[in-house]
Specification:
alpha/beta; binds pyridoxal-5'-phosphate; about 15% strand; single chain; Aspartate Aminotransferase, domain 1; Aspartate Aminotransferase, domain 2; 12 strands; five-stranded mixed sheet
């Protein structure tokens, strides 16, 4: 599939049926797989042969869908996880452990911020947060000798900051570590971070990839470009024998193309067990088949709503990188030439109270802890997803208390704007 365009990969990537096999990806709803001899199965356990033995480690349905996502991102290997949270945790914990350090953009999803700053800190992994708009000097100063990775989001949820992926990749590589990019909001249809130097991409597939609010899920994709062995002292988990897996040295046995995902599956999925169910992987694939068609419409509706809000007297400010004059418009032209996403953030004059009246008056747009759905929805992050943050942290993350995040769905833009207009009248 590698020569085909992304639209074709969305529809047909990852799975090519043989003669007389199902045209659609089969749902292999089985926990386990049968073998004729113990020796046959032993080879699988030793990672000497590829095949299936237990769905916690691998399942054909999940593998077809992961292979499609790898093709969409232009990576060499991918795996599915039970959620975006699991994907980001696995991607980071595959490289950093107790006593290590990470560098992360301060403008990231609230759940990821909590994962890094609270839970991973408890595990002994420290993180230095940097502004997505930091200078090269500020970025470089964040690194320590024990830094193992850099993390950021292409388009941050919910602040909608656009990351300078090239700048962050250069800094990571200058310090001998990979850049992990959460590409959830852009999707590979609008941005492929590997083309800008990122090494690992993660997704909450719960969002646009699924696109219909059906299944929580995540994915991790490896570009296959990072040379672990060239930085073997930093990554002993990849470059020295794994005693918990028959003494395998992942970087040696699976090379740059396969080491990261194989280790992540063999160790982390084995031990933490955050698998995506094959049924959910099937639903995810239905979403992927129309991702390229839906993203264009989400962007069209986001643009129309953002332009309407920008002119409205009750709106203090609008964040949408598709608007000329937006702080991230120039950066978006480079990284997101086809459009960004359907999510528009805006601050109402009148803060938290006005946001509440506005949201309660909407008829089409529902109040939901969700984004990137076919149905338009909205949220006040300060009172929901980000409520564990202090006012200072909220400000640093670019999420003031009166901010409304509106995820424009696939409805008629005219109907969405009429709904917003009548709700604004009530404010
Ligand atoms: C939603 C989201 C996550 C978390 O994903 P879940 O599937 O909800 O666990 C991570 N990163 C970003 C950018 C998200 O939008």
């Amino acid at each position: 599939m590698s020569d085909y365009r992304i639209e074709t990969k969305c529809v047909q990537g990852g799975y090519t049926p043989g003669n007389g096999e199902p045209r659609q990806i089969p749902i292999v709803q089985s926990t386990t797989f049968k073998y004729a001899t113990g020796e046959d199965m032993g080879k699988l356990f030793d990672l000497e042969a590829s095949g299936y033995f237990y769905t916690r480690l691998q399942n054909p349905t999940n593998d077809y869908v992961a292979a499609k996502i790898a093709e969409l991102e232009g990576g060499t290997a991918a795996m599915l996880t039970s959620s975006g949270q699991a994907a980001n945790f696995f991607a980071m914990f595959n490289l950093a452990s107790c006593g290590d350090h990470m560098v992360a953009s301060s403008s990231i999803y609230g759940g990821t911020f909590n994962l890094i700053s609270v839970t991973m800190a408890k595990m002994g992994i420290e993180t230095t947060f940097v502004s997505p708009d930091c200078t090269d000097e500020e970025l470089s100063a964040a690194f320590r000798p024990n830094t193992k990775l850099v993390f950021g989001e292409t388009i941050a949820n919910p602040a909608l900051t656009v990351l300078d992926i090239e700048q962050f990749a250069k800094a990571a590589h200058a310090h001998g570590v990979p850049l992990i990019i959460d590409n959830t909001f852009a999707t590979p249809v609008n941005c492929r971070p590997f083309e800008w130097g990122a090494d690992i991409v993660t997704h909450s597939t719960t969002k646009y990839m699924d696109g219909h609010g059906v299944g929580v899920g995540g994915a991790i994709v490896d570009s296959g470009k990072f040379d672990w062995m060239a930085h073997a002292d930093k990554f002993p988990g990849l470059c020295t024998p794994d005693d918990s897996y028959h003494g395998i040295t992942y970087a040696e046995k699976f090379g740059k193309a396969g080491a990261f995902i194989t280790k992540c599956t063999a160790q982390l999925m084995r031990d933490f067990g955050s698998i995506q169910s094959p049924q959910n992987a099937f639903y995810l694939n239905l979403g992927l088949e129309s991702l390229h068609v839906r993203m264009a419409r989400h962007c069209e509706n986001g643009q129309a709503v953002a332009e309407f809000l920008q002119k409205h007297p009750k709106v203090a400010s609008v964040s949408y990188c598709g608007l000329p004059g937006d702080k991230y418009h120039e950066r978006a032209k480079k990284y997101l030439p086809k459009g960004s996403c359907g999510v528009v953030s805006f601050e109402l004059k009148g803060g938290r109270e006005a946001a509440s009246v506005f949201m309660n008056s909407l008829r089409l747009a529902a109040i939901e802890t969700h984004v990137a759905d076919a149905r338009t929805c909205c949220l006040n992050p300060a009172s929901t997803t980000h409520r564990q943050m202090t006012d200072e942290q909220l400000k640093a993350a670019g999420v003031p208390a009166g901010l409304v995040r509106m995820s424009c769905g696939l409805e008629s833009a005219d109907d969405l704007i009429a709904d917003i207009a009548q709700a604004l009248e009530k404010v």
